[in-house]
Automatic annotation (TrEMBL):
Record field: catalytic activity: L-serine = pyruvate + NH4(+)
The EC number(s) this enzyme carries: 4.3.1.17
Residue stretches making up the Serine dehydratase beta chain domain: 5-156
Cofactors named for this entry: [4Fe-4S] cluster
Protein name in UniProt: L-serine dehydratase
One example GO MF annotation: 4 iron, 4 sulfur cluster binding
Family: Belongs to the iron-sulfur dependent L-serine dehydratase family.
Residues in Serine dehydratase-like alpha subunit domain copies: 189-469
NCBIfam families given in the database record: sda_mono (TIGR00720)
SUPFAM superfamilies tied to this protein: Serine metabolism enzymes domain
Length: 475
């Protein structure tokens, strides 16, 4: 299947799409294969090897616990936050893992083999699962790579996966890999960027399913914010980072109430405070992500707050939205996510959305660029203006390194989402005040991001070995 909007916006758990969602998914695939092979009953031992970035920052990113849950058969898109806590407590207490939900094995986080200095050729986020029988004979073994945004690739199937992707793209009604191709479709058909994406999505879903699915994605983003605003205290992991969103929300409700003093109506958002609302949504999503809550990868977990924050801006502060009907608001959500998704496809196709591969420019930069495109689209931008918005947002995120303190997706990640959301809004506004013509194309900036990522020292690619991660003392 070609990368689609529902691949880029998938529901999972925090704190990291590449280090939590991907490893859980890979472990769940391995557990299912064992079941399918009929070898479960013979399993006597399990070995998990984590390589490169997964080993270096896995503890802070919840990789090891995600792998345990995956091996028990849980999938990131279906597991409930309560189940996460319940199962991890049971494994810690009994020291037993229920492999594929059926075979008890003595296994826990401490049994995993961490190989931070070994980077497998395909990708820095590698993991190998091996099970053996009582005599030590290997029953099954598989290596997977978590390549960003929750996507996984099995070792040895990289070319086949790429070929399948290429073939499925050719079958799409309006296939595109580059912004130039996307704009060409717009020129030829007279359609907008979100329409091109919608037509391709209709290849695998009905129009109703697409609309319903995208509105569901937005509802999960809203639920994530609502849950986060009810939680207080410090985030897990030992950095003692305090949740700020609940206090900010109380303050904003007070300061942003109606001028006539009529209560603290949540539906009234004083335009004077648009920036504070955008900051609040980004913080709320990323604080929830940092605590392992349910989030939508957009396109990754570390960058999950940017698109909800900018979409919130579109719904509450964009011109003409004051008296919009529910249907109009739903249209905005669908159009926004489709346009953002189209730009996400470009990053996935030509570069990477993985912090471990290209640094934070691939995560926060891509999300900011996608959000800028979504906002420009719903504010009436032409395809050229939308492409310009996406280009501006990425241009000013180039070179952004990934250096999370303690390997936790907290500092600088949480605030960085708020800053990148503001950049996206500014990028969209700048593009909308132009006529779409500009010096640097989106394709050029995407290739630059990829090349910059290649040149970046591995210290700055989700290893927590450089930058803030080493210059700030963990308390
Ligand atoms: S610094 Fe950026 S890429 Fe790295 S973990 Fe944080 S959000 Fe993700």
């Amino acid at each position: 299947m070609a990368v689609g909007v529902f691949d880029l916006f998938s529901i999972g758990i925090g704190p990291s799409s590449s280090h939590t969602v991907g490893p859980m998914r890979a472990a769940a695939v391995f557990a299912e294969e064992l079941k399918g092979l009929g070898k479960l009953a013979d399993v006597a031992s399990l070995r998990v090897d984590l390589y490169g970035s997964l080993a270096a920052t896995g503890h802070g990113h919840g990789t090891m616990t995600a792998v345990l849950l995956g091996l028990e058969g849980f999938h990131p898109e279906r597991i409930l936050p309560d189940e996460v806590e319940e199962r991890l407590a049971a494994i810690a207490e009994t020291g037993m893992l229920q492999l594929a939900g059926a075979v008890p094995l003595p296994y826990g986080v401490k049994d995993m083999v961490l190989r931070p200095l070994t980077v497998l050729p395909r990708h820095t986020n590698g993991m190998t699962f091996t099970v053996s029988d009582a005599e030590g004979n290997v029953l099954h073994s598989a290596t997977f790579f978590s390549v960003g945004g929750g996507f996984i690739v099995r070792e040895g199937e990289e070319d086949a996966a790429q070929q399948e992707l290429e073939e499925s793209k050719k079958e799409l009604p309006l296939p595109f890999r580059t912004a130039a191709e996307l704009l060409e479709h717009c020129r030829e058909t007279g359609l907008g960027i979100s329409d091109v994406m919608r037509i391709n999505e209709e290849d695998s879903r009905t129009p109703g399913e697409i609309r319903e699915g995208l509105l569901h994605i937005w509802s999960v983003m809203e639920e994530c914010v609502a849950t986060s605003l009810k939680r207080e205290g410090v985030l897990p992991g030992g950095l003692k980072v305090r949740r700020r969103a609940p206090d900010w929300y109380d303050r904003l409700k007070k300061e942003s109430s109606r001028p006539d003093g009529e209560g603290q109506d949540q539906d009234f958002h004083d335009p004077k405070y648009w920036q504070e609302w955008v900051n609040l949504i980004a913080l709320a999503v990323n604080e929830e992500n940092a605590s392992g809550g349910r989030v939508v990868t957009a396109p990754t977990n570390g960058a999950a707050g940017i698109i909800p924050a900018v979409l919130f801006y579109a719904l509450h502060f964009a011109p003409g939205m004051e008296n919009a009907s529910q249907e109009d608001r739903d249209d905005v959500v669908v159009k926004f996510l489709l346009a953002a998704g189209a730009v996400g496809v470009l990053y996935k196709e030509q570069a990477s959305i993985s912090g471990a591969e290209v640094g934070c420019q691939g995560e926060v930069g891509s999300a900011s660029s996608m959000a800028a495109a979504g906002l420009a689209e719903v504010m009436g931008g032409t395809p050229a203006q939308v492409e310009n918005a996406a280009e501006i947002a990425m241009e000013h995120n180039l070179g952004l390194t990934c250096d999370p303190i303690g390997g936790l997706v907290q500092v600088p990640c949480i605030e960085r989402n708020a800053i990148a959301a503001a950049k996206a809004i500014n990028a969209a506004k700048m593009a909308l005040w132009g006529d779409g013509s500009h010096r640097v194309s989106l394709d050029e900036v995407i290739v630059t991001m990829r090349e910059t990522g290649k040149d970046m020292s591995s210290k700055y690619k989700e290893t927590a070995m450089g930058g803030l991660a080493v210059n700030v003392v963990e308390c």
